[in-house]
Write a structure and sequence with these properties.
Number of domains: 1
Number of strands: 0
Helix content: over 70%
Shape: globular
Radius of gyration: 20 Å
Structural class: mainly alpha
Length: 320
């Protein structure tokens, strides 16, 4: 009887382990889809709301949940060393303030799918600048990945015609989305100096608070309070999606995945983000699936795959 019970317990534990293992992968897939969906929600919100107001409300929502989660995990809101205050404020100014202002401004005039494929350059550019600033190894495979991703992004931007770029057709929408890339690269490189001293959850929580505080004044100057009653339920739904699913839940599930299967395997799911954005934009926003967009998506995703191995965990968050 004892032996039979032991065998049953072992079988139960193995089954539970398999279920938890599969659940981790399901959460990572959903996280990638959530992040892809932020471009669709952002496009909807950007049409109805000015960029700083949208950014402020998105991260006001996200900050509430991040505070609650941090309090639950840490048992309190930890005190931050004085030496970390400036870096955390810089994280808020780059990854929250600047990134989202560029994000919503760009999505006022550029399709969600195109924006997603440009922002998908984030991990590639982080790898490139990390090799310069932090002397991280840039292997031949990563170099190929960088070249493929950049080629894919240029294919999308030029709509398959490189002369398009030289004829002055590069619009403000594309330039603003490139601003997102530069903002997130800065955020991630600054984050490398912070992660060794505090956890990713704490750094995201406090940088979110810092960025939200910085966004308040320009949001008020846009007439935020007087405009609040005029926004549609769809806009508010989009903001909640961006704040909760795209930022908080995506972050929590992604870092759960890192803990359980490691950063390399978890990072591979970043490849799904631009593809899911393009597919969702097609079905929800009726954006066209052009040949140049599909070729660009394949090149960008393949490039991300080649350069993503070995990334730091904070940098992989470049699709929130």
């Amino acid at each position: 009887m004892v032996a039979a019970e032991m065998v049953t317990n072992v079988a139960t534990e193995r089954t539970l382990g398999v279920v938890l293992f599969m659940l981790t992968y399901i959460k990572l897939i959903l996280t990638a889809v959530f992040w892809g969906g932020t471009f669709i929600a952002g496009r909807v919100v950007a049409k109805d709301m000015p960029p700083f107001s949208a950014s402020f409300l998105r991260f006001a929502i996200a900050s509430v949940f991040l505070i609650l989660i941090t309090w639950r995990v840490e048992g309190k809101l930890p005190r931050i060393e004085r030496s970390l205050i400036a870096p955390i404020c810089l994280l808020g100014l780059t990854g929250v303030f600047a990134y989202n202002a560029f994000f919503f401004k760009g999505l006022q005039s550029i399709d969600a799918g195109r924006a997603a494929l440009i922002i998908a350059l984030n991990p590639v550019m982080i790898s490139f600048f990390s090799s310069i600033l932090f002397k991280e190894e840039l292997t031949p495979i990563k170099i190929i990945g960088i070249l493929m991703s950049v080629t894919g992004a240029l294919t999308v931007i030029s709509r398959g015609n490189p002369l398009y770029l030289f004829n002055g057709h590069l619009g403000w929408g594309e330039l603003n989305i490139f601003g997102c890339v530069l903002s997130w690269v800065s955020f991630s490189l600054i984050g490398k100096t912070v992660l060794g001293k505090i956890s990713p959850l704490i750094s995201i929580c406090y940088s979110s608070l810092a960025g939200t505080a910085a966004l308040m004044i320009p949001a008020l100057l846009e007439g935020l309070w007087s405009s609040l009653p005029t926004y549609s339920s769809i806009t508010w739904l989009g903001l909640f999606y961006l704040g909760f699913f795209g930022t908080v839940l995506g972050f929590v599930w992604y870092y759960e995945g890192i803990k359980k299967i490691g950063p390399t395997k978890a990072g591979l799911f970043i490849n799904v983000v631009p593809l899911s954005a393009v597919v969702l934009a097609f079905f929800i926003l009726n954006e066209p699936l052009t040949l140049s967009l599909l070729i660009g998506a394949v090149l960008v995703s393949t490039g991300i795959y080649l350069t993503n191995i070995g990334f730091g965990t904070l940098s992989a968050q470049g699709n929130h």
